[in-house]
Amino acid sequence: MKMRYLSLVAAASVMAIWIGCSTPEPRGITVIPNRDVSISSSANAPVAGNALGLPLEPAKAAGGSTLGYETSPLLGASIGAPLSQEAEVLKQRQLDLAQYAGEELWIIHRSKVDNSAASDDQYPGTGALMTQVDEKEAPLPLKHTDVKASVVGYISTVDVTQQFENPYDQKIEAVYVFPLPENGAVNEFVMVVGDRRIRGIVREKAEAERIYAEAKHQGYVASLLTQERPNIFKQSVANIEPGKRIDISIRYYNTLVYADGWYEFVFPMVVGPRFNPPSRYGGIGAVPASPLASSGQPTDVHYLKPGTRSGHDIALTLEVNAGVKVEELECRTHKIQVQGMNEPLGTTTRRIDGESFTVKIDKADTIPNKDFVLRFRVAGKTMKTAMITHEDHRGGFFTMMLYPPAAVEALERAPLELVFVLDCSGSMSGEPLKQAKAAIRHALKKMDSRDTFQLINFSVDARQFGREPVLATRENITRALSYLESLQSEGGTMMIEGVKAALDFPHDDSRLRFVCFLTDGYIGNESDILQAVHEKLGDSRIFSFGVGSSVNRYLLDGMARIGRGTVAYLGLNDDGAKVMADFFERISHPAFTDVKIDWNGLRPTDVYPKRLPDLFVGRPLAITGRYTPGTKPGVIELSGKAGKSRIKVPVNAKSGSGETSPALASIWARSRIAELTQQETVSRDKDLSSQIRKTALDFQLLSPYTAFLALDASRKTEGSVATTIPVAVPVPEGVKYETTVE
Amino acid sequence: MRFLLAAFFLLLAVVAPRAAEFAVYDVYIDSGTEALAAYQLKISDRRAAVKILSVEGGQHASFANAPKFDEKAIQRDVIKVAAFSLAARDKLPSGRVRIASLHVEVGPGLTPDWNAIVQAAGGPGGRKISAEVSISKRENQ
Questions:
Q1: pTM of the predicted protein model
Q2: Which of B9, B21, B60, B62 has the highest number of chain A CBs within 10 A, making it the mutation to test binding with A?
């Protein structure tokens, strides 16, 4: 009898908790009366700084103290948690989710086997907003992305506005997973509701997620921006009412890449479908377009079936002021309009006059399914200004380009051991594999007979051309070309097998070993690969080649950085022979190694990258750091080894004509976060995460541990809980849906 | 049995954590008859009852953009904002005008006790002017 009572009480408790959790109405609201305060300031009170600029005083007074009330546990777990913690993280996420409105549980707990049943019928009612065009159009809440970018020198400022609109007859939460450049410092986030502009604030990720979930639950319009990878972000917008529009504006800064005489501006538009090794949790899943589809990974990208469009389009305007004469520009990814030219520019190169130009994506090319890449070549071999500085209340910041000394170009290289590692997984099928094969063909034909080579291909496992590297004789190259032609793409991307095969064999001491990875990088376990490269690298150098229209630049850049090599990208319209010719030009001369800088009185602190990498011909390095205002040098000295001799070269570090950019503080902070994040992939030092968190909060930047949150607390939306609608995206151009989406 | 259940629910209601409340606090500056060209504000809650979640721009076109804030102060839920307008004097606001709104989370059962310091400048020359700041809670619609 006693047991029965206990059971009843327990059952009642469970019911009560369940009711408390699932009710859409807020719990326990306390009415707080209006309270006005009125404080006067006198005209005699000192005004800090310039009255019009009104720079803020350094934060000194601690008027407020840290808030004391408790926060709920995590809604989301940290990405990239160590393997040993995965099960715990998963368990924790499931428990935590139970505290929130029930509408999310069915998505998280759904088995992946049901994905085949996913269909458009699983979206809410669509009313009259769905339209039919040539292709089937799926009604989705992201209507348009508007990108306005400006480049001054080699610093770019990019404003991205995402226009969300609810085409359904029910309230929704839109969730959009999208890419940005991996070195982009995202530090502005504004939610626009009607004509009201609400600026978001960076908070610790777990806290931001808790507040967002609570606001969503209570019916407020809110938005949350999180970083899933340094180049992948998740935008959630809660409680968009039927027919209503909410815009999200993001601003980021980054530095342009300079390679082989060309500056390169890249705006990624879609996340390619990632492959996650079996039993690996913490990746990015690739699933069909359906609110019910789930891969079991913490973040999923939903892909539209072939022949389906979402109606989401993109506009992009780029203004460039190079500061020096621009001689040529080219865009091989999109048709563009160049101001002052009447015809769209296709995949050709145009000569232009002057230091500045403006381009727009042509109206005929607005489907966001490939990276936008614009290159421009400036007069001369180096930049006009080596160093750009900025000073504000936080101190001094600088960025500068380091070029390998001209003397390096006069030296000849040593014999090489070249290892080509070709990704033959399903995502490379078609054009990407064709492009990669063309590039390797060209490279094999350019080899010196003193060199040796190996050819490795991987998908679910790795195979290789020879038992060991062979001499680059005509006969061996003919055999290798035949082996290369026989390769087909299929299966998953077990890149770790390719890394092991390429780095786990004895090194021929008489040759420099260069390992060339040719891949789209569509994997979800980037940290495993970067860690493996770090552990197995030895004396090898890694040169990564990103092949495709929308590759994983974070992985490829990371492999080259850790591998002390360089990265190059081979788009679907690029000339593989040209990309390989540039590569051979780079490796035809020894690298400028053991690089050191004599700062000549600048006394910089926190310079990134911390360890200066080797410099290759045609590949300058951008470095960034802090300095004490008022200590700028005129000339600094760069020293290093070229071949067997040590040489020193002066570098003009005088800040040009007073050029300054407030973006430098954000760029410096982002570089610091990138460096600490890289250390974190190979170290268990727990202090690294708190350093990343502090830097991100101090500079209001997104990071693995921080998130942007914006909330409109002025009104509660009507209706019950919002249905979560993932924004489905097209697979990148040249990638096959059938071989990549689960 | 009913008594036991009622007592249990009562106990549950008392001990169950209450949801946080979200609210908007409008920030007004009254510059009297002077045109307001620039301001700098520091706002904190003496009771540490709020978390500042977002900052909205003001009602007047000259200050409609959401103002930027000091990154270090916001970590202590103290907001320091500054904005200026280069518009002609007759296009600048005067009198009492809402120049920003704070969207906040208020701890359960708590009420903020705001402390605000304003510094203001009027006209294109940036002359210091007297101004009053007031903060009031906006009724939820």
A1: 0.83
A2: B21
